[in-house]
Amino acid sequence: MPELPEMENYRQLLEQKLKNRWITHVEINREKSINVAPEIFSKLVLQSKVVHIERRAKHLLFHLNNNHVLLLHLMLGGWMFFGREEEKPDRTIQVRLSFGQHHLYFIGLRLGYLHLLTNSEADKELSDLGPEPLTDAFTFSLFQKLIENRRGRLKTKLVDQSFLSGIGNCYSDEICYLAKLLPTRDLKDLNLNQTSELYHSIRFVLTDALRQGGYMDQPLFKGDGGTGHFQSKVYDREGGTCGRCGSIIIKEMISSRKTFFCRGCQK
User: 5, 63, 112, 238: which could join 210 in a potential S-S bond, CB 3.0 to 4.6 Å?
Assistant: First the structure.
């Protein structure tokens, strides 16, 4: 599932491609991927202009010039491609937005969605999200206040979108690995040094993953050479060798989520 680095990578690339461009055609192939009747969706989206694209947590918000927003959550298996008709992947397309001869294809939206909302509806929909961990406002002092008197295992809290925005299964494991902390540890048991390690690991892992275009290897457009270069240290590497201590990476289920870690160097 795309997480903060993947969605921020998408945002930056799509902002370059779509900002101030008009939507010239709308195609809905799966009505369950949207939240209103197709005719209403098309009426409000067609001939509108993309003013700018914003990311909040794992969502993208396509702000239109008619005070409406297209709220995207790709969920598991979702991705996008931007290009001409002859360039599109040989995959089922749930929604297509056209910008002249170029199109934005939404693929794999079986669990994900592209909802049409007003600005105020979008704000309400996302009002319970926690702080964004890559902003300047996310200081160590703020992080200390967030975890003060909080209980819960690291894995569970890191993927809790009301606690922090944008972290999911992959990067929660990578963060715990870099911090040398077991994902089964409880927040309340961390000392000051461990809290500091966790904070700096959050910032480093997400920044590094974004710099490498995230871990999803589907290019956003033809010639996209910057997407999908992040290589995990533990996530999805069960049975592999830890690059830090040589122990075997194991997988366990924590709160119904697959979790990968190294017992040799995570304490």
Answer: 5
Query: In a 3-state reduction of DSSP, which class is residue 246?
Result: coil
The mean pLDDT value for 229-239 works out to 98
**Where does the pLDDT of residue 171 fall: very low under 50, low under 70, confident under 90, or very high at 90 and above?**
very high
| Structure letter (DSSP) for residue 153 | B
Q: What is the radius of gyration, based on Cα positions, of the chain? A: 20
User: Is the CB of residue 116 less than 8 Å from the CB of residue 70?
Assistant: yes
Name the fold adopted by 140-262.
Helicase, Ruva Protein; domain 3 (1.10.8)
Backbone phi, psi, residue 201, to 5°:
-70, -40
Question: Which residues in the chain are classed under CATH 1.10.8.50?
Answer: 140-262
Its pTM stands at: 0.96
Tell me the pLDDT tens digit for each residue of 68-96.
Answer: 999 999 999 999 999 999 999 999 999 99
Helix (H, G, I), strand (E, B) or coil at 212: coil
- The residues carrying an active-site annotation are 2-3, 58, 257
